[in-house]
Each structure stands twice: as structure tokens, then as C-alpha cells.
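note to self: dont lose this again. the chain is below, predicted strucutre after it. 760 aa total, dont forget to put it in the shared folder this time
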Amino acid sequence: MAQDVRMTERVKVIYDRRGEIFDRSQIPVRDTIYWEEFDKHPDDIRAVQFAYGFSRFLKEKKIQLCEYDLMAGNAFAYTFNTTLPIDCPLDYDPHFRAPVDIDPMRESREAIEFYGYEEGSDDYKLMMDFGIAVKNWLIKHWESGHIIPGYERLLKIGYGGILAECDEALKTLTGKEAEFTRSMRIVTQAAIDYIGRYEAVARQLAETASTPEYKVNMERIADACAQIAAGPATTFFEAIQLTWFTHELLYAETTPASQSFGRMDQFLYPYYKASCEAGEMDYEFASELMDCLWIKFSHNLHSYQNVTIGGADMNGVFMGNDLTKIMMQSSRKLQFDQPTLCMRYHESIPDDIWEEAVALLKCGNGFPAFFYDNACAAAKMRMGHSKEDAYNYGMVGCVETSCPGKEYAKTEVLRMNWPMVMELMLTDGKSKYHEDVIKPFTSRDLDSIETFDEFYDWYKDELLKFSALAMEAVNRLDPMLPETYPSPFLSILMEGCIQNGKDVTGGGTVYNNTGISTCGQADVADALAVIKKLVYDEHKYKLSELAEAAYNDFEAEGVDYSDMLADIAHCPKYGNDDDSVDLYVKEIVDLLFAQADSTSNPRGGKFQMGIYTVEDHAKMGVRTGGLVTGRKGGTALANGFSPEQGKDVNGPTAMLNSTLKTDLTQATNGMVLDLKFSPSFLATKEHTDALRQMMNAYFKSGGMEIQFNVIDRETLIAAQKDPVKYKDLVVRVSGFSAYFHSLIKETQDEIIARTEYGCI
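---
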């Protein structure tokens, strides 16, 4: 039985006052300073210019410390228009997520200028086509974040140790490599000085503290800052404080996009154990500190700050500890959408860890998601990771497996809208949802296609060609990043960058792959099943008739589509253990994996495939027209690797069987499988035992990831109608959790429409 948990009084003070840190005046500070520093250093490479901007920003940015704080540091909201070709306003409400979006046409123009492509050339057309495809959500593209920095190494050597590594490397590096490492030295010294600013403020507050307890708090922070500014962590408090400071600095360098932590319960545990044995702290104080860390995470809304817990070693021995439980208890107490909490799962998981996980699941916020060690490690080894590194994997952002401190894989750089490819084929590029016509590579007279296999081959060919276009465009953008948008601070936290004299964006670390992910594979499988049955097997409709009906959203004056919709409803649907439709998903995933696996990138790696959607199944759906499945245009596509919402009618076991027909170790960039259970289902031990047995069977049969929304449809509908009343409601979306009120309506509708299971 999981223990009861509650915030202590001093944590509650911090919790109740957490909204006071927001400061709208800070938003434009970063970009203003960066642009000024660029102008001051016109002869330096971009990485050095960025380093000077970062250094000055840390000297001038606001820091905030209150006497009641147990830990120092806060992440303010900023603009990041210098970091990437994005569109971020100079002012917005910092209580909400920054309205940041990629500017695809600016990015394409910058690439054309960088390479000197002539207007009208094939290279020019490639980049412009890519920009239009991204603008219209045929392709999703995002460069920043989605990485696990090397916290474990940092805690062991400190910023002083990193500074020494820079000095040693600079003895032999020359030319541009030396300049890149010089940029890393500048930001390392800036980090040391920044922590020193906190020490000074803490000592001042200690002198004026209103209570003896607050004086102790400030002295503890000041002493820790004095040690970790340049030195390694020596206590649990120093380790957790240095971890937060580093996270805060990463968010000062680049857009807040999935800077993740990897196995936090593992790399912090030696400090926890030593501090407890030395009598410096106990379980309760460690819990208070973790609560405070979670509160700091909560300021970065909807930002995919992923913490990985649990997991077995290469011999199948589960490695959970006190911190594994403490972290789940913090999520249970505080009920925030951040950080995202992922449990590395193995059938050897101890009962006490499982019970804590169940207690957290019952809260309904979607934590933790579960990842099977053997499948995830196999996927990493498939991408060239050593066995040791593969079994040390952590989760990035939503569900992307990554090697902490050694891997820069751009996991969110590409996502392909599978259903839109079919829409373009059936309409010859015409859409109600965007102005630009995106023609298929081959236009066809629909009714001249004589067999289903001919149509199916056409679809696969179009999907592969659009994927190839996307990968080629990203490969063109890759060499630009270290020259135009480098990340020197992130680079010091990644193994090899300092010694190689390469920015992390330029192949400086150990593993350098590139992600390409999918969206809407269930929609496409169901559409193929409709076309095969109704056009080619039963000859009930012409392909052009289905295409026209889909374009019209099955609503046109003087046309009755009720019989057609009834026929579509009786076609096979993915997620019901039916090979006639499930195997389309398997075949196309196999095809795209082979394409990605055989495509290299300029950083010495290759492409890796993901089967997850974040919130893009809704965002892509908003721009995708009607489908022959009966889905209306402008509505969400299928979530992750899950079936179309509400179309899996044979229960969770059948749905899992459909999933397992695909080799999931091909999801080398991660996968999502979402199930929704009614809260009453987890009310008894009999049911939670059944859930554990189902998970064990699923994972042993080839499963990789599974996550749960434990909430009823009625609550979601009420929350949509009254967002103020349900402002603290957190739900699982697709690989991450978020406040329900913060989601776009299309995402809310999609979650409401998911099949709700009441049994296994």
C-alpha cells in the first residue's frame, strides 16, 4: 500500500506563493542583449557571439530569491527570436506558455541565402517546397531542445572541472575548432559567475532573515552556491541545487523545448545516500526538496521536462530506490503537468514501487508512463549504441529514448502527416485548409486505377517521396545550425564537444542521429481498408466518389451520404485485432523504417523513426481535409500508435494485439500507445493486479511503451464547458501531460472521444 502524502507547511508556503515570480518586464531582456552583443563582436564566429550574449545576459537578468525558499533559482519567461528562426512575440502573459512557433518560410529563405541557391534552381525549389509543406502541416518541423544533458558528469566534476577541460583542449585545438571551444569556455565561466550572484543574495538575506529558520535556509543555499559555483556536488542538497541551476541556464540559452533529465533517481541517489548516512538529512527533508524542485518545474508550462525513474540493469535487476518513490510522491502531492514522469518498467519491479506508481496513476494526470527496458534498449542498440549506453537510456520530451550526456538526435525535427499525403492524392493537391497547392509527385486519374494494389503502391510511393524531401531538407539545414544557431552552453554538458571543438549541433557529441516521426497511421490504415472493400472488392463506389465525399465532409446540398457512411462504418478498423487492416500499419512502418535507417545525416548519424504525435495529431488534423473513413476535415487525427478515437471496440487486449503486429523496436525515436480507463477501474487491488499482468504480457510480446488516462468522459466534458472550475485538471495527451484548459479545442475533443475501457 502506497503511503499517504501531503505537503509540509514550509513547502506549502512556497506552493501558495509560486505565482509571484512572474515578471513581464523580463520577457524582452534576453534578445535585446543578444542582438547588442552580436553587433559588438562582428568578427567572431556565431558561437562566440552567442557565448558573449549568454554571458552578459546572466550578468544582467533578474534573479529572485525569497527568505522562505528552500532552494534557489527560477526560470523566467523570455523571447528567443535569436535562437532559431521562430516567431515569438516581445510581450505575452508569462503565466501562460509562450506563443512560440517555427517560421518555416524564414527558415527556408535563410537556407537559400546560406548556400547561395539561385532562384528557380532545384535546390531553391526543394527548400521552398519544404517551407510550404511545414507551413501547411504536411510536415512538422522543430529544431530545438529534446535532449538529455550530462548531469551525472557535471555533478562529479562541477563547472570548474569543465573549465579545466576547456583549457586543456585549447592547448591543442586550432582554427574554428578552437573558437568553438572558446565559446564553451566563455559560457562555463558565465555559469560560475551566475551561481556566485545567488550566493551573494543568499548571504545578504541570511543577515536580514525574519526568523531563525529562514536564516538557516539562506545560509544553506549560500554555502551550497559557494561549493557548486565551480566545484562538484558533495551533498544531496548541493546536487539537487546544481541540477536546477543548470536546467535554468539551459532555458536561458534556448527555447524551452524538452530539456530533459534522464535517470534523475539514479544520478542523485549516491548524494542522497551519503547525506542520509552522514546525518545531514532524512527522507522527509529530501521529499521537501523534491517538492520544491517540482514547483520550479511547474513554472515552465507545457514544456516536456522529462524525468526518468526506475529501470533494470543489463541483468534484469530493478534499480529503484527511495528517490524513485519520492519523485512519484511529489507528482502525487502537487498535481502539476510538469515534470513529465516516465517509469522504466521491468517485470522485476518491486511491489512497493509498483504500488506508488498505481497511487500516482489513480490521480488521473497520466503519470507515470511506462517504458519496457528490453524493448527500449534493443531500439537503442539498433541505432548503434553500446549495450551499456543502451541500458542507461532516459526519456526525452515525450517518449524519445536517449543516452544522457552523449546523444543529440533532434528527436522532434520532423513529423510526417500520413493522412494528408492521401488527401493530396485524392484531390490532386487541392485543400480547403491552406492556400498553397501541394501537388502529389504523380497525379493520377482516380478512376483509371484498376486494382487496390495499384492504389496502395501509389500511396506508399508518395509517402516515401515526401519523407525523402523532408529528410533532404533537414540535412541541408543541419550544417547551418552551428554556424547560425549554435548552443555553446548545452555543448559543455555533452561528452566530446569540448575536446572535438564542435558545437553539439555540429556533431560534437557521441551519438548524432536525426528523428523522423509519424502521424495518423491508424487513419491511413482505416482509409485503405475502406478503399479496398468498397471500391475494389465490392465495387460499391468509384474512388472518385469517395474522394469527392471526403472533400465535402460527407455533407453536400442535394446529396445523401447516409448509405455511404453506413458502408464505411462496417469496414475493418485498426485496433480490433484484424489482420486485414492492422497489417497496413505494419507494412508501411516497415517501409519507412527501412528508408529512415538507410538515410544518413551530415553529423555522422542516420535517421530514426518515431511513432508518436505529441499534440500534432490535433494540429495536423486542423489543417487536414476530410478522409474516406468518414472523419471530417479540421478534426484531430489518431493519437500516437493508437486507433482512431472510439474505433477500437473489441477491448484493450485486441487493441494491444493490433499494435504488436508491428516490430516496435523499429520505433527507434520512441512510440506512444494511449489507453483510457474509467477511474473506477483502478479502485480495487484485483483490477490493478490485472493491469500489471496485462502490461507484463504486452511488454513480453514486443511492447515498448504504454500510458494511461484515468478519467471519465463526463469530467472532461464538464472541464471543457467550465475551464475555470477545472483549471487544475491535468490529462495525458500523447507522450506528455498538460492542463486540460491549456489544450486547443481539437485536442480536447480528441481526448474526450478516445475509447474508455472499464475492464481488461
